Amino acid sequence: MYEFILYEVKDGVATITMNRPQVYNALNDAITYELQDAFKQAGKNDQVRVVVFTGAGKAFCAGQDLKAALGEEKRSFSQSLHKRYNPLIRLMRNLKKPVVGRINGVAAGAGCSLALACDILVMAEEAYLTEVFINIGLVPDSGSSYFLPRLVGSAKAFELATMASRVYGPEAVQLGLANKAVPAAELDAAVKAYTNYYVQAPTKAIGLIKQMLNKSATATLDEMLEYEAWCQDIAGATADYAEGVQAFLDKRKPVFKGE
Asked: Which residues are 128's β-sheet partners?
């Protein structure tokens, strides 16, 4: 189905794997369009309750494939962003399901942006994030200028963006860029702990929470109070809400079906 990514759905988990290990999963045109399609498929599939996003081989993603870009016809950077990267970031952020980033190695440039766009980030201790754009005289894109200051504050964001600092797993957790950092051998188990939770969670409520947190970044308190009320009506009409209440009354663990 795809040439440069792997897509698998199993037990409620969609795993999207960038699969160009020979170039550290660098992003050419085709892989970005394939990723867009994969996230669309995950969104449309009711069997999918959570998405794992990762890279094959030693890296998560080294960012834009500069060698491929040199061989392409001349086009503007903004055109590339509007067609390839920005739609992908929007798909990830608007997906009404949690996205767990499995960061197995370097996440650089646009690859770092993809990592930061995940809802949960689990890193190998040896893996690192780096806003490497400045090393070739460019500015952060694909959402990094949005995510960074919100996660680490303006001063640290400026440092990371202008110095291309490497932030390894443990420091990423300390700074608030990642949720968990573990030895590489324990990475899969750490990711599975999250997916095991989310495949049994009330998926529609998770999606609404994600929408609310996205909106809160630019909303006023009054706007969020209104939005919370609107979202709560939606959550309260779900089968999972009814199941949660019944389970509470029955003094048992709820069995959420994501409905």
From this structure: 168
Compute the distance between CA of residue 133 and CA of residue 137 in angstroms, rounded to an integer.
7
- Architecture of the domain delimited by 5-198: Alpha-Beta Complex (3.90)
The single-letter code of the amino acid at 223 is: E
pLDDT at 71 over 60: no
Q: How far apart are CA 71 and CA 73, in angstroms?
A: 7
Residue 220, classified by CB atoms within 10 Å of its CB into exposed (0-12), middle (13-18) or buried (19+), is exposed
Residue 16's Cβ-side half-sphere holds a number of Cα atoms within 13 Å equal to 26
Neighbours of 60 (CB within 10 A): 29
Distance between CA atoms of residues 112 and 128, nearest Å: 9
Q: Which CATH class is domain 203-250?
A: mainly alpha
pLDDT digits (tens, 9 = 90+) for 14-48: 999 999 999 999 999 999 999 999 999 999 999 99
DSSP string across 145-156:
HHHHHHHH-HHH
- What is the three-state SS of 30-98? HHHHHHHHHHHHHHHCCCCCEEEEEECCCCCECCECHHHHHCCCCCCHHHHHHHHHHHHHHHHHHCCCC
Do the beta carbons of residue 194 and residue 201 sit within 8 Å? no
- How do the domains of the chain map onto residue ranges? 5-198, 203-250
Alpha carbon of residue 102 to chain centroid: 9
- The pLDDT assigned to 66 comes to 79
Residue 75 burial by Cβ neighbours in a 10 Å radius (0-12, 13-18, 19+): exposed
The whole-model pTM stands at 0.94
Per-residue CA distances from 142 to 79, 138, 166 (Å)? 12, 12, 18
